[in-house]
Amino acid sequence: MDSIFGLIGYVGIVFMLLGYFLLVVGHMKVTDTHYIMLNVLGALFVVITLHTGGTLPIFYTVVAWLVISLFGFYKHHIATTH
What pTM value is reported for the model? Predict the structure, then answer.
């Protein structure tokens, strides 16, 4: 079971880093839904992994990343629907 959570964490890290890389090289914008979703899913997957035995400072950092990403998604969704 630990290996499943480990895999989920690695996928989450890949999502977060991929989104950041694509942003830096200009293939995505901060307001792109795909960028925001990579951050949301990546942070969620890492939180799931850290919940099973990570360190608290990293856990809280990634929870904050998740909350900020969700806020970005909400803000972008509201901006595009109105």
Answer: 0.79
